[in-house]
Each structure stands twice: as C-alpha cells, then as structure tokens.
C-alpha cells in the first residue's frame, strides 16, 4: 500500500514496528513504533507517557515528510 | 545419533494465543508440539525446543536473539529448524531472525518453511534455507516433511543440488559446479544467443534479482500548507464494521469520517475498535489512537504545524493480505486521496 500511494505521487511515511519488513516491502520514509498491538502507546504506562510518546513519534513522522532523502531512511526517535 | 533443535512460537509451542504473544524466550529439554513431528521424520534426535512469543521477537529482537543464543551455547546440536511459519508474518520474521543468528553463531544448517506471501521469505531467504509452505497449520505435516527430507540429506552428507531442484527459495548464491552433460559454456552461450535471435524462450544462467523500488516522493516544503491523511493496516473501524472488512486476508478497505473529532473514541464508547485478527486487540480497543493517532494529529493541527488533518482516515487489515490485494487497495486509496486534494500521508502498520 505504501508503495502504491507513493507511486501516485504522495509523500508518505510509514510508522511500523517491523522495520525489516517495511524496508523490504519498499517504504522510503520509515519511523519506528514500539510494538505490534500498540504501535503508539504502551497500555502498561500512564496515559501521560503514552501521549508523550505518541506526540513525539507522530512529530518525527511529520518531520520525515519534510525531509529530502535520496535513499530509504529510518528516522531516529527519542521517546 | 545427530541432534536437532526446533524453534516454535507461543502458539505452536503450546503456550497460548495472541494474549501471550509477549511470552519471553525459553528452552526446554524435551519435544514440545510440532517438535515431536520433526523427531519422527528426522535421522536425528530433537533434544531441545526453543519457544518465544512472536511479539517479543518482533519488538525486542536483540534481547530475544541474545537470550536464545545464550541458551544454545551449551547445547550440542547439528541442525536447527524454525517454524513452519505458514502465512503468519510475525512468525516468519521471528524464524528468520533467530535462524540467521543461529547460523552465524554456530555455523549449523538452518531450515525453515514459509508461504510465498510471508514477508520473512523476502527478508531472510538469502540467509537460511526456506522452503515454500502452505497458508495455514493444515499443511504442517507436508511442510515439515519437506524441511526434514532436506535436513536428512544434509545430515547424511548427500550431494546438495541447486535451489530449484531441492525446492527451497533461491538464496541468490552462485555455486560453481559441473553440468551432468558437460556441455561447455561457449556452446551454451551460442545456443542461448541463437534462441534470443530467433525470439525463442531461453533461461539465463545468471539471473539478476529484481528489486521493485518506488521513486522517492519529494519532501513537503511547508506542512502548514497541506492536508495530511492517516491510513492504517491495523484494522481500526467503527464498532459495527460497516464495510465488513475481513479480519484476515482482507480484500476490502473503508474510509471513516473523523471531522470534528479530537481523538478516536474507543470501543466501550461505541465508536472505534480493531477487527485485525493478527494481534491482541485489547490495547487498540481501549484506545484506538495508539494505532491511528488522530489525537496527536489534531494537536499538531491546532499548533499550526500541519495545515489540516484530512476529514477521513482509511483502514484495512494487513494480516494474511496478499501483496496483490494490498497493491490494489493502495491504488484505490491513492485515487481517493487525489480527489480529496491530500498532499501527504502517514501510514501506520501493526
């Protein structure tokens, strides 16, 4: 899906936990998430921590959309 | 008697289902579940079964691999089997990760089996032997048979043939070997050339692997000017699943109105839930924003970092979904996005 949407000309970033899969499939901009069942907020942590993580990683994804790349790139996250 | 070790996930290792997919790695000095079948078919004894939850291996890969390599350090074994993983993507990736690591660390043959649609095939076929397998556990016996037949050849020191003849996915490794009929290369090259000139079919002896890459879309200059859409393969839908998207092997997708919503309300509020059958739904049902981050996008919209969050998000289920169907759905969603004048997309996958 990522590839078809990018092929159509949209700038797209994939947020994924299984980075090797995203890379192999051919996503160009990739931002890591924390798990499969809860990509953007661990339910064993507080609501505030989940929010902080989600807000941060979505922010990284948005910045990825504004970043010029000339090859596949996995963007670094801090939280 | 030679010795074998088998790697299974939480399900085939008889720990449980999705709710225990976080199960930490363990090793048992016995044959658990499918390990018994291997033991019957092999010219070796299965001495140990390694079991690890798929999510544990997927999310904490390094820790899982290190732990398992630690277990195996004091185990004497001649061959390692992982799976079969059928069409289960996470299990396939897990078999590949641990298989590759075991091969590198202990230099023993590693054999797995996966359906062609399993992402583990593309990622790991160069590192370990992977045989084509069925869609589901109904093919357990057939798949294990293929793996153990080949394993027995290795254990018995028989001559191994190229991938096409042995049946495993091509690893892209080139061996030098002598043809049975000893036709020299110049004759084969001339034959090939003549066939090519005559427009006949011919088979190259040096096939070049195809890489299907997409041209990188340009960076967005100013996010505050654009509309961004959320797309997910995590199966988030309104609680009544109005488009009847399948929980696995999906062929349908849906678009759902989020205009005026600060966040996605959850299943208990009667709004959104996940129908994805490939992961434990508890967290996503309790807070769908962990999969489709509407709340965070609204915040960025309010702060002016982005122009607008598109009024709809797009959803399907990405487990067991064939690449062909995923490509078609991607095209259809792209068409919608064009009509809606969206410029950029965040796609979340589970």
Structure in words:
The complex is a heterodimer of chains A (about 80) and B (about 350). Chain A has about 80 residues and is an alpha/beta fold. Chain A has one domain (about 1-75). Chain A is about 40% helix and about 15% strand. Chain A starts with a helix and ends in a 5-residue tail after the last strand. The model of chain A has no long low-confidence stretch (mean pLDDT about 95). Chain B has a six-stranded mixed beta sheet, with helices on both faces. Chain B is an alpha/beta fold. Chain B folds into two domains: about 1-165, Response regulator (Rossmann fold, 3-Layer(aba) Sandwich), CATH 3.40.50; about 225-350, no CATH class. In chain B, helix 3 packs across helix 4. Helices cover about 35% and strands about 20% of the residues of chain B. Chain B is built from eleven helices and twelve strands. Chains A and B meet through helix 1, strand 1, helix 2 and helix 3 of A and helix 2, helix 4, helix 5, helix 9 and helix 10 of B.
Relevant terms:
heterodimer; B: alpha/beta; Rossmann fold; 2 domains; 6-stranded mixed beta sheet; 11 helices; oxidoreductase activity, acting on X-H and Y-H to form an X-Y bond, with a disulfide as acceptor (chain B); oxidoreductase (chain B); Various_sel_PB (chain B); selenocysteine (chain B); Glycine reductase (chain B)
């Amino acid at each position: 899906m990522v590839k078809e949407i990018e092929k159509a000309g949209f700038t797209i970033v994939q947020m994924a936990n299984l980075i090797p899969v995203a890379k192999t499939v051919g996503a160009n901009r990739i931002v890591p998430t924390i798990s499969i069942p809860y990509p953007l907020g661990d339910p064993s942590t507080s609501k505030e921590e989940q929010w902080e993580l989600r807000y941060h990683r979505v922010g990284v994804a948005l910045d990825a959309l504004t970043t010029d790349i000339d090859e596949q790139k996995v963007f670094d996250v801090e939280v | 008697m030679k010795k074998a070790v088998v790697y299974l996930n939480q399900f085939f290792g008889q720990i449980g289902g999705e709710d225990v997919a976080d199960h930490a790695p363990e090793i048992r000095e016995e044959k658990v579940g499918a390990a018994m079948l291997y033991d019957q078919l092999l010219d070796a004894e299965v001495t140990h079964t390694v079991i690890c939850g798929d999510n544990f291996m997927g999310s904490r890969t390094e820790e899982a691999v290190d732990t398992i390599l630690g277990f195996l350090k004091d185990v004497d074994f001649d061959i390692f089997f992982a799976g079969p993983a059928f069409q289960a993507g996470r299990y396939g990736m897990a078999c590949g990760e641990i298989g590759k690591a075991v091969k590198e660390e202990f230099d023993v043959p590693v054999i797995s089996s996966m359906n062609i649609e399993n992402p583990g095939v593309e990622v790991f076929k160069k590192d370990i032997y992977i045989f084509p397998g069925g869609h589901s556990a109904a093919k357990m016996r057939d798949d294990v048979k293929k793996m153990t037949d080949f394993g027995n050849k290795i254990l018995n020191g028989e001559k191994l043939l190229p991938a096409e003849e042995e049946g495993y996915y091509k690893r892209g490794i080139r061996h030098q070997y002598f043809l049975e009929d000893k036709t020299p290369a110049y004759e084969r090259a001339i034959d090939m050339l003549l066939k090519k000139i005559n427009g006949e079919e011919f088979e190259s002896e040096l096939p070049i692997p195809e890489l299907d890459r997409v041209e990188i879309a340009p960076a967005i200059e100013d996010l505050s000017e654009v509309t961004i859409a959320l797309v997910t393969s995590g199966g988030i839908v309104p609680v009544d699943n109005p488009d009847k998207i399948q929980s696995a092997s999906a062929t349908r997708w849906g678009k759902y109105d989020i205009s005026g919503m600060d966040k996605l309300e959850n299943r208990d509020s009667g709004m959104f839930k996940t129908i994805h059958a490939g992961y434990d739904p508890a967290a996503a049902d309790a807070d769908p924003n962990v999969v489709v981050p509407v709340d965070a996008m609204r915040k960025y919209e309010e702060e002016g970092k982005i122009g607008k969050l598109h009024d709809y998000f797009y959803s399907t289920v990405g487990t067991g979904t064939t690449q062909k169907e995923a490509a078609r759905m991607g095209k259809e969603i792209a068409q919608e996005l064009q009509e809606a004048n969206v410029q950029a997309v965040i796609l979340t996958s589970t």
